[in-house]
């Protein structure tokens, strides 16, 4: 009997805590919680804040819009993240994480979801970075049962407010406040709190913000109600009541598309059978919180994603998210390539990965992480960017349809290790290390002929090429962002005191002229980024022989081949930075070759440097930038591995296909490999 009152008191305490509303202001970095005013009622709270000063601002460095991000690429929970989120509860109702198997789920018409509130839990001067804000909306009717967290919850006014029914209107509440002030000697607390409703600045709006907050090793959606001070926008085409939320969303989705329409393809067999559960629990809540429309389908057998991509309605979606490893993106790209309207498909749809498989190289390279929740946040915030693909041709399928590759092709030691150790996949990454060690000890050779069209043959030429195109890509990205930033040339003054402005009579006309100029310029940039049918044309058909300007690799090396690896992305696995000089759209692919006769003492530093990318600096490693190549194996049995998929052992010809595919890149670039400082 004695436990029930205790439970009720505890429940009321949590309920009261969640109904606090804090004041905040907009800053350049995000929404900052305002410091509480000095009063006897808030002294204890201020002391408590000092003891729990684990601010979200500490995590703002991981904002997906920062251009100077020096964090680790694997953004799991830091100590600060853990301390910040010790009291967090489940992100979403358990019914939303059901893993009942269906072939197709339409999540676009979900009822309104309610995310856990953190009202009153954010210390003063906390900054919620724009890069973590998922959504914002006005609270249409001011909830009368809330009180301002900047005033004392123990003040007489707050006590009276807690006893007022939620159904009473604002006039009744103000009437009760007047009676309270007349009969109560503690007028200081009453005056402090009554300013919430009677003396608040006309530039203050009540807004609910949903943002991604670190919780253990993930990020989860949370909501907070804030009274936000802002300066009304001076532009005539925006209504005053739309300015604040619109500005928050503009800053939160800078250079990226809001409310994406996402076609999710899940491989339920990926990630040791956990891919579906990972998506439902780690990715789906974030996507729904950001108001993305989602449709989910599941693959049933190898190659099924090719059929799905070939037959899908491309007019309904702008993004395909592969909740899997690297095999499903490979199938999706080739399924779109086989469509009669493949030009439209590659112009309209961005292809990305939510890492739910065993090989997540695309996510690590493009989203800088192999954590599903952080990768999903990156998907929501990242920039659509065009990347190069590679076109593969072999006699068995070239006439019907060549194959596209987004990641890599390999022959020799790495290919056999990758494919032939599938039966011990349960060992995780250790299977690869074990297979490589076994083949090196055997000194197994893979004789072949290799013909290459070089773009940068020597390591010095490669370094110059890398620096030139990396800087060129950065300048192009800055040009794009500047064009989009110019749309928001009228800025807010976020200081507590507002300055009056003298408006010109012609200001609106000038703004309209500038807006029309910017729109036309953006349309021109957009049309220039479109690909055409001629971009799919193969420059070096397989049946026309080897071009005269290609060079043959020294037979002394090719007849004693150990590793042959070509690729377009820096990472080929979560912990293997095989191509540190890879760039998204430099019009080349990287080639790495080793000699099987290399001694074990010299192979050791090569293998130990794979996680850092320093293996390419070893003198025994050939590292070049190339435009195309042809490899002709001399062995009777073996295989090629293309994007981790098994290809037949027959002559393979590959050429670069510039800027063919749209994907989502964090900050518009691949993860930083530090190659320029090696």
From TrEMBL:
Enzyme Commission code: 2.7.1.91
What is a single cellular component term in the Gene Ontology annotation? Golgi membrane
User: What segment(s) does the record annotate as region Disordered?
Assistant: 1-20, 92-121, 171-198, 497-516
**EC top class, as a word:** transferase
Listed GO molecular functions? Answer: ATP binding; sphingosine kinase activity
All copies of the DAGKc domain together span 257-396
Cited InterPro entries: ATP-NAD_kinase_N, Diacylglycerol_kinase_cat_dom, Lipid_Phosphate_FormReg, NAD/diacylglycerol_kinase_sf
Reactions that this protein is recorded to catalyse: (4R)-hydroxysphinganine + ATP = (4R)-hydroxysphinganine 1-phosphate + ADP + H(+); a sphingoid base + ATP = a sphingoid 1-phosphate + ADP + H(+); sphinganine + ATP = sphinganine 1-phosphate + ADP + H(+)
Q: Name one GO biological process term.
A: calcium-mediated signaling
Membrane topology reported for the UniProt record: Peripheral membrane protein
The protein's UniProt keywords, in alphabetical order, are: ATP-binding, Kinase, Lipid metabolism, Lipoprotein, Membrane, Nucleotide-binding, Palmitate, Sphingolipid metabolism, Transferase
Q: Where is the composition biased (Basic and acidic residues)?
A: 92-107
Low complexity composition bias: residue spans: 184-198
- Determine if Signal is one of this entry's keywords: no
Q: What is this protein called?
A: sphingosine kinase
Q: Which organism is it from?
A: Saccharomyces cerevisiae (strain RM11-1a)
């Amino acid at each position: 009997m004695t436990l029930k009152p205790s439970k009720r008191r505890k429940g009321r305490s949590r309920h009261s805590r969640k109904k606090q509303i804090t004041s905040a202001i907009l800053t350049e970095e995000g929404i900052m919680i305002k410091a509480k005013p000095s009063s006897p009622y808030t002294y204890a709270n201020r002391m408590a804040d000092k003891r729990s000063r684990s601010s979200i601002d500490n995590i703002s460095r991981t904002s997906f819009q920062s251009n100077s991000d020096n964090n680790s690429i694997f953004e799991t929970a830091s100590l600060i993240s853990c301390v910040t989120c010790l009291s967090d509860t489940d992100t979403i109702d358990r019914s939303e994480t059901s893993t009942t198997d269906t072939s197709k789920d339409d999540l676009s018409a979900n009822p309104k979801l309610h995310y856990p509130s953190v009202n009153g839990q954010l210390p003063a001067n906390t900054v919620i970075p724009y890069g973590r804000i998922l959504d914002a909306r006005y609270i249409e009717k001011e909830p009368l049962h809330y009180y301002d967290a900047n005033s004392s919850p123990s003040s007489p006014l707050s006590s009276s407010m807690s006893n007022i029914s939620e159904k009473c209107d604002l006039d009744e509440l103000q009437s009760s406040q007047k009676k309270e002030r007349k009969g109560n000697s503690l007028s200081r607390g009453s005056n402090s709190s009554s300013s919430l409703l009677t003396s608040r600045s006309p530039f203050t709006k009540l807004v609910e913000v949903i943002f991604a907050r670190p919780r253990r090793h993930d990020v989860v959606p949370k909501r907070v109600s804030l009274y936000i001070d802002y300066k009304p926008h001076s532009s005539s085409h925006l209504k005053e009541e739309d300015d604040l939320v619109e500005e928050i969303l503009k800053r939160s989705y800078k250079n990226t598309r809001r409310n994406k329409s996402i076609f999710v393809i899940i491989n339920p067999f990926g990630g040791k059978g956990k891919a579906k559960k990972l998506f439902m629990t780690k990715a789906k809540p974030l996507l729904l919180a950001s108001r993305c429309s989602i449709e989910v389908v599941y693959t049933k057998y190898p190659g099924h994603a090719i059929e799905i991509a070939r037959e899908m309605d491309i007019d309904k979606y702008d993004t395909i998210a592969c909740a899997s490893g690297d095999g499903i993106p490979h199938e999706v790209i080739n399924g779109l390539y086989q469509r009669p309207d493949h030009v439209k498909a590659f112009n309209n749809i961005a292809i990305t990965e939510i890492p739910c498989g065993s090989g997540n190289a695309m996510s690590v390279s493009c989203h800088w992480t192999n954590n599903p929740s952080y990768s999903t946040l990156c998907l929501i915030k990242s920039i659509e960017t065009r990347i190069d693909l590679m076109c593969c041709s072999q006699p068995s399928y070239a006439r019907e349809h060549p194959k596209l590759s987004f990641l890599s092709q390999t022959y020799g030691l790495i290919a056999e290790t990758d494919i032939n150790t599938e039966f011990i996949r349960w060992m995780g990454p250790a299977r690869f290390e074990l297979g490589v060690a076994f083949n090196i000890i055997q000194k197994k050779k893979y004789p072949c002929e290799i013909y290459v069209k070089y773009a940068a043959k020597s390591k010095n030429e490669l370094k110059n090429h890398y620096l030139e195109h990396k800087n060129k890509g950065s300048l192009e990205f800055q040009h794009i962002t500047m064009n989009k930033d110019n749309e928001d040339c009228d800025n807010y003054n976020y200081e507590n005191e507002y300055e009056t402005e003298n408006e010109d009579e012609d200001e609106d006309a000038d703004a309209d002229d500038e807006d029309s100029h910017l729109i036309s310029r953006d349309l021109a940039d957009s049309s220039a980024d479109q690909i055409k049918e001629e971009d799919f044309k193969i420059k070096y058909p397989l049946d026309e022989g080897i071009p005269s300007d290609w060079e043959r690799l020294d037979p002394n090396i090719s007849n004693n081949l150990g590793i042959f690896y070509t690729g377009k992305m820096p990472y080929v696995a979560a912990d293997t930075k095989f191509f540190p000089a890879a760039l998204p759209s430099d019009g080349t692919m990287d080639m790495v070759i080793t000699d099987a006769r290399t001694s074990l003492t010299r192979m050791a530093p090569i293998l130990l440097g794979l996680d850092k990318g320093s293996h390419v600096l070893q003198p025994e490693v050939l590292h070049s930038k190339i435009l195309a190549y042809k490899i002709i194996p001399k062995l009777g049995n073996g295989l090629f591995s293309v994007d981790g998929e098994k290809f037949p052992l027959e002559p393979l010809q590959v050429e670069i296909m510039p800027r063919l595919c749209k994907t989502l890149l964090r900050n518009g670039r691949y993860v930083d490999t530090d190659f320029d400082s090696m």
